[in-house]
Amino acid sequence: MQTSTILPTMELSQRAKSIPPSVTLAISAKVKELKAEGKDVIAFGAGEPDFDTPKKITDAAIEALESGLTHYMPSSGTPEAREAIANKLRTENNIECTGANISINAGAKMSINLALMSILDHGKNQEVVVPTPAWVSYKPMVELAGGTMIEVPTTVDTDFKCTPEEIESAITPNTRAIMINTPSNPCGTMYTSDELKSIAKMLERHPDVYILSDEIYDRLIYSDIEHFSLGSIPEIAHQVITINGLSKAYAMTGWRVGYACAPENVAKAMNTLQSQINTSITSFCYATIPVALEMKDEVEEMRKVFASRAALMYKLIQLWPNTECAEPTGAFYAFPKISHYFGKTTPAGTTIHDSVEFVAALLDETGVAVVPGTDFGGCGPDHIRLSFACSEDQIQTGVTKIHDWLCEFAT
Description:
Layout: H1 14-18, H2 23-36, E1 42-43, H3 55-66, H4 79-93, E2 102-105, H5 108-119, E3 127-132, H6 138-144, E4 148-153, H7 164-170, E5 175-181, H8 193-203, E6 210-214, E7 240-245, E8 258-261, H9 264-277, H10 288-293, H11 296-317, E9 333-334, H12 355-366, E10 368-369, E11 371-372, E12 384-387, H13 392-407
Parallel strand pairs: 1-10, 3-4, 3-5, 5-6, 6-7
Antiparallel strand pairs: 2-8, 7-8, 9-12, 11-12
């Protein structure tokens, strides 16, 4: 009888062992698993539009494929794509730039990774200051690039925004950069132009500190607050790395097209790093960039739909007992505070200790999936995130189910 040999498990790097998986992607995977089992689940987890990519964009990709654009491309991207992005930033964001300032990458996440890798060094105790709650990937990306993320906590009472003084108090001689995300994932709120100008004025006192301005949701705004780009301020423009992409506003999450606008030396470094990591984005996707950036009417129609969903979700969440929620003014998220229920018992008899247990019990008992705020930092563990990138019927049904569930909690 032949016996099998059990081979020893080889050791992983500390880098691989220290980085947690994305909680949002884990929730999405769980929802897909439950749906595959035939279970009825209403999902508020995924941060992606439920629209199909507009036909003009897919047609541009098909035409590029059929014309033979299937070979290696330059890591810096095509001149046409880089100029289309630069033109968008000049005309819509008032950022003075040329194609030489642009790096086109496989999603905004890769843009942030490459930017951090271009400005941070391992072993130098460099820090990146980030207002929290913040997107779950910021901390792992900072750490992978060799830095340490320093949190500036905010609360629902201030719409999750911090003051220039609070940011400056976190800046030390080791500070290499700060990161600002407006409109915000996960909070759904945004800074006004005056608030950003005040932050910029403070940053003039720190000319050696980079500013990574994550503006991926700049076209998805539902209030009279206008988007404002820090890179448009001449006094700090040399410090600003603007991050954006086509995923959110153009319903192109799976296309993986992100970009950064940075000082020329940073953009060049990002492109050099990319040349050694993944060469470039997919060749035939470059042709979609100029087409997408000209599609203002289609984007506006999607924005109006999201605005209606934002209003509906906020209205329904306000009916929840013993919770607080800032009004969503941008992106497609609501971030209600649910910590009142910690230590209490669910209708099915489960005692809740934190937002992770809250989310697990909610899914088990109601079939509604949301994201725990634990990994977003700051006050995040007291919150849950709901995405309204889904139909109004789903919002009406799912948010109402949560309301009814909360009303049945044991006191």
